[in-house]
Amino acid sequence: MINPRLIALPDYPFQRLATLLAGVAPGADPLALSVGEPQHPTPALAGLELARHGDQWRRYPPAAGNERWKAAVTAWLTRRYGLPAAMIDPHAVIPASGTREALYMLGQVLTDGRGEAGERPLVVMPDPLYLPYLGAARMNGATILAVPGSEEGDFLPDIAGLPAATLERAAAVFVCSPANPQGSIVSLESWKTLVGLARRHGFVLVADECYSEIYDDQPPPGVLEACRDLGGSLKNVLVLNSLSKRSNGAGLRSGLIAGDPALIDAFLRLRAYASAGMPLPIMEASAALWDDETHVEANRALYREKIDLAAARLTGMLGFRRPPGGFFLWLDTTPWGETGEQATLRLWRDHGLKVLPGAYMTANPDAGDNPARNRLRLALVHDGPVVARALDRLVAARPH
Length: 400
Ligand SMILES: Cc1ncc(COP(=O)(O)O)c(C=O)c1O
Fold this sequence. Notes:
By secondary structure, this protein is α/β, with parallel strands linked by helices. It has helices at residues 4-8, 13-21, 44-52, 67-80, 99-110, 132-138, 164-169, 188-201, 223-229, 243-246, 261-274, 280-291, 294-314, 340-351, 384-396; strands at residues 31-32, 93-96, 122-127, 143-148, 170-176, 204-208, 237-242, 255-259, 328-332, 353-354, 356-357, 375-379.
């Protein structure tokens, strides 16, 4: 009665965490660093715009977005990535109700459950990864290839190192930069290589850039810059971004998808059937947020201060590495002689710290040599004093 592919999916990471900690009382007042939900205030601008456009709740939203939203997002992409004025066609920029749903739905756009020779199509993704990539592929009958990052490769998957025959079979390749959880950033050169490979082998490069505005010193290059440098075409490329992290607006469910006009058209075709659409007041508020950079700069400065707090406490400990992007720490529990799951349980039971085991963010949790099994992800989403308190507890939690 229930789709066996759905049943075969691993429980979502936060469900697994709840199962791990079920019935275990926290050893101190709980501090949650498990969920990547920004706790800085959403700019007041969002609420004002929502109220100003309150008469539009009664309307079904246009799936392709309204003119104001399209103009704001096109202008933002053009500004942020230094693109020529006409490179982005506003028709090829559409809203998503959060990028998660778009990432998931792309599975239906890009795979049909069987390859040309009856072979299942391949969807390539990083490992560790944001689990919806895996859900999107598996629910649509694709075979997944999760490519682990290595320390020498800055923890990013070496897609270019895959055999040509593998890339030839790929329907889509998901790449996340800045990466969740490692915080690594794909260089402009690597983006160019990836775009070239997508066109040579005929796969779609899906660039998940939803952490693009949270960075340490250098703005992460985006895939659109690579397209610009390669002549301006967006062929075989899709990019996703979101207000969830940039504007502390996870509850707005407001993202964007842009890129190859033929792919965006296909996506719209699906969305006519499947998408809830972004309500017009939210579209208006989103346009105002994409137009404003002041709150983004202030937000970034707050994250930088918290990464400083982490660096001051954790340098030389648990494989700490200052993440160039995003707001996660990806810590190695090997020095504690524990797996990530064991450490998670102990941090909760003895110290009231809720973190996420790395094993819940990998497509290969059962591979004994998977380094993600000995990792923890910590989301520095609370304000500075709370984060400082949590990090002090973490330092004190070293087993004796
Ligand atoms: C890597 C990555 N991509 C996409 C998303 C989805 O963000 P949203 O649906 O809030 O836009 C998240 C959220 O945590 C994420 O970590």
